[in-house]
Design goal:
The chain has 10 helices and 4 strands. With 169 residues, it is of the alpha+beta class. It has 2 domains: 76 residues, no CATH class; 78 residues, 3-Layer(aba) Sandwich (Glutaredoxin), CATH 3.40.30. Helix 3 runs antiparallel to helix 5. It binds FE2/S2 (inorganic) cluster.
Amino acid sequence: MSIVKENLMDEFPEKSKELSEYMDSLPLTDDQEKNRGYLIQSLHRAQGIFGYLQEGVQLFVAKRLKLHLTDVYGVVSFYSYFTDKPVGDFKINVCTGTACFVKGADRLLEELTRFLHLEQGETSDDMKFSLGGLRCVGACSLAPVVMVNDKVYGNVAQKQVADIIEDCK
Ligand code: FES
């Protein structure tokens, strides 16, 4: 077991306390299957607190829900919303769902790669930008869609990419 895993409370006392208090507020039981129903919302909260779901955080959640770490990891890796790597202040995600793909999402990704010097899944060294892709974000009528943190940019043309990046500054 890594040092981080054992010492989440020591290393991040305030964040751990906040997550712990949140999980104390859930009606958890000794029944793994019932607790499993609280996994996604717990991870959502944990990512909100820690910024990303490092292994120690996943283990913390797993223990509280009496689940195996592999159960938690399976959910984290399945949903593109969750990340187990540190992310930049501005998380720029291109929707790569069908409607957005048909309307040129791949060209937007290429343009963002060129501007940011980042490949999909990478974060800039100064931790300012992360570039990624998301599956359909439910705004298909606005395709192609780019999200910057929680802000949605719709009907994005390649030439708007520079403006989107500029908005982040
Ligand atoms: S496919 Fe992009 S919002 Fe639905």
